UniProtKB/TrEMBL annotation:
GO terms for cellular component: cytosol. This is Transcriptional regulator, Crp/Fnr family. InterPro entries: cNMP-bd_dom (IPR000595), cNMP-bd_dom_sf (IPR018490), Env_Response_Regulators (IPR050397), HTH_CRP (IPR012318), RmlC-like_jellyroll (IPR014710), WH-like_DNA-bd_sf (IPR036388), WH_DNA-bd_sf (IPR036390). It comes from Granulicella tundricola (strain ATCC BAA-1859 / DSM 23138 / MP5ACTX9). Residues 12-96 form the Cyclic nucleotide-binding domain.
Amino acid sequence: MMNNPGRPRNLILARMPEEQFAAIARSLVPCDMPSGMKLAEPNQPVKHIYFPVSGLISIDALTAKGESVEVGVVGREGFSGMSGLLGEPQMAHSVIIQGAGAGLRIRTQILRDEFLKGGVFADLVHQFLYLQFVQTSQSALCNRLHPVDARMARWMLTASDRIESSTLNLTQEFLAQMLGSRRSTVTVAAGELQRQGLIDYTRGRIKILDRAGMESVACECYQIVRSAYVRVLGAY
């Protein structure tokens, strides 16, 4: 499916047929998406759906004690607020901006009305839903079976792909939270990646120096998920 020139860089919006895009275009509101901004919280209404054109959205599962682990990420290939679009008014997870960027937001009900009409837009949503399932299920396997250095390399590569940059602005504390690991464990793993010359780490900033080397460290989960996205969307 070809992108439409002149459309937002978000892949779903870019691939909507002209008639369907025109039906929602006036309701799309440009917005900044600063790091740390919360788009949704568990058991709260999903009032808006966000389509990133840059930056990175993190979907996190939370415990009753407030502990969290990342179960999915969204870049310009998708959108946040899937539950609201499908008719479930509340989110089960926390949704937060992990990498600053920009996007377009729309009231959930407006987009749901268009989704219920079917057509190509509904097909695009179903494709993205499938890819989210692939990502989430692979993350569950990865968090259970793979060592922290492999998971860290996978996460950094995935984040780099989504924001289209080799530089990631984040702290080790935040990375530990995303990986569901102790900060001390993440510190050791990051130090080893730096010692091997694969990354450069300074406080609050990680730069991937050797992508091929990072791919060799990452577990197979990275390529499994990447291949699914490329097959379905033609991009990652």
